[in-house]
Design a protein that fits this description.
Blueprint lengths: L2 E3 H8 L3 H10 L9 E3 H10 L2 E7 L2 E6 L10 E2 L3 E6 L5 H10 L16 E5 L5 E5 L4 H9 L7 E7 L6 H13 L3 E6 L8 H9 L14 E3 L8 H15 L2 E2 L6 E10 L3 E10 L2 E2 L3 E4 L2 E9 L5 E2 L1 E2 L4 E7 L8 E5 L2 H20 L6 H7 L2
Parallel strand pairs: 6-8, 6-9, 9-10, 10-11
Antiparallel strand pairs: 1-2, 3-4, 5-12, 7-8, 13-14, 13-21, 14-20, 15-19, 16-17, 16-21, 17-18, 17-20
Helix pairs in contact: 5-6
This protein binds guanosine-5'-diphosphate and magnesium ion.
The site of guanosine-5'-diphosphate has 16 residues, from helix 4.
Organism: Sphingomonas edaphi
Family: Belongs to the TRAFAC class translation factor GTPase superfamily. Classic translation factor GTPase family. IF-2 subfamily.
Protein name: Translation initiation factor IF-2
Length: about 375
């Protein structure tokens, strides 16, 4: 039952059927393109071609090419992508606004700050930091569940007058599970009842040893309200980013992840996409989750129209045929026929997810097409 035709497998791998047949012959399995092969053989073949079976999430399966891993010499430094997490009311939104506010240059051409789900700030040395504007661990875990590991650094906000709370601990656990480095922003230090040292001690109980306690997790005392020490926080992020040596190849077709999406009455589906590698350009044919389309226009976090967006740059994309979901992967494909094909396949996986109780595993993905 767990079988797939060579033709179908070739299609999903983006390889020529004839090449698969040739490989199968070498592997001692002489078959024609219309015959079925079992799952083990299919998996061998996938490996043979340097592809990997990518479980986008527990209930979604896709095949991606591993042969298109970017060569070291094509990689260039890219800005870090930061998510702010912490307990409700500890100041996540205030901190995001304060950081952004301090960075908006008045009089900038068309410089109207626009909420697109993410924004970039520039440091004095002109290096940049990308902030995801959707704080909270839900957004972080939702995206991770969908296979979109976009966050490079987590800033954990802890109110100095309140200490560690349940959502702080959840955020710590999610960050650890994701293996993402953390910086602690001890907020609300303007308050007379602020006890930053108590926060550091409480963090010890969760194996977070901050620098002030002799550890290597950077901690910065801030006040989002009074805009105190925001520069130090940005410097801490920049330092952490330097250690991570974040790089991507900007000179290839773009791949990215949806940060948020909505339907706009006048402009149709809008998706804020964080480019992860390559450069996204107006005119590119794209598949985003189960939606496809052509990039008609792109708008940056200042409301300006842009023609292209490179790694770690967030842009709002116009031109999709449907509204995707946060965490969906954007892929640039060679033409519209291919876009529809990929989108239809992904839609099929989604439909199946909805109509069957059993999660779509690799096994039933193959059974499904037999
Ligand atoms: P969030 O739920 O984590 O996004 O927290 P908010 O940013 O909405 O802040 C919750 C409350 O704390 C609001 O009333 C803010 O004005 C206040 N707040 C945030 N940061 C500071 C700060 O640095 N100092 C003081 N005194 N209040 C703050
Ligand atoms: Mg908030």
């Amino acid at each position: 039952p767990e079988a797939i035709t060579v033709q179908e497998l070739a299609k999903r791998m983006g390889e020529r059927g004839a090449d698969l047949v040739k490989s199968l012959f070498k592997m001692g399995t002489p078959v024609t393109i219309n015959e079925t092969i079992d799952q083990d053989t299919a998996e061998l073949l996938i490996e043979e071609f340097g592809h990997r079976i990518n479980r986008v999430s527990e209930s979604d399966v896709d095949i991606q090419s591993e042969t298109d891993v970017d060569a070291a010499e094509t990689l260039k430094p890219r800005p870090p992508v930061v998510t702010i997490m912490g307990h409700v009311d500890h100041g996540k939104t205030s901190l995001l606004d304060a950081i952004r506010g301090g960075n908006v240059q008045s009089g900038e051409a068309g410089g109207i700050t626009q909420h697109i789900g993410a924004y970039q700030v520039a440091l004095k040395d002109k290096s940049k930091i990308t902030f995801l504007d959707t704080p909270g661990h839900e957004a972080f875990t939702d995206m991770r569940m969908r296979g979109a590991n976009v966050t490079d650094i987590v800033v954990l906000v802890v109110a100095a007058d309140d200490g560690l709370k349940p959502q702080t601990i959840e955020a710590i656990n999610h960050t650890k599970a994701a293996g993402v480095p953390m910086i602690v922003a001890i907020n609300k230090i303007d308050k007379p009842e602020a006890k930053p040292q108590k926060v550091r001690e409480e963090l010890l109980q969760h194996e977070i040893v901050v620098e002030q306690m002799g550890g290597d997790v950077q901690d910065v005392e801030v006040s989002a309200l009074k805009k105190t020490n925001l520069d130090s926080l940005l410097e801490a992020i920049a330092l952490q980013a330097e250690i991570l040596e974040l790089k991507a190849n900007p000179d290839r077709p773009a791949e990215g992840a949806v940060v948020e999406a909505k339907l706009d009455k006048g402009r149709g589906p809008l998706a804020t996409v964080l480019v992860q590698r390559g450069t996204l350009r107006v005119g590119d044919v794209i598949v985003v989750g189960a939606a496809s389309g052509k990039v008609r226009a792109m708008i940056d976090d200042h409301g300006r129209q842009v023609k292209e967006a490179g790694p770690s740059v967030p842009v709002e994309v116009l031109g999709l045929g449907a509204v995707p979901s946060a965490g969906d992967q954007l892929t640039v494909v060679e033409n519209e026929a291919r876009a529809r094909e990929v989108a239809t396949y992904r839609q099929g996986v989604l439909d199946k997810k909805r109509t069957t109780a059993a999660p779509v595993s690799l096994e039933n993905m193959f059974a499904n097409r037999a």
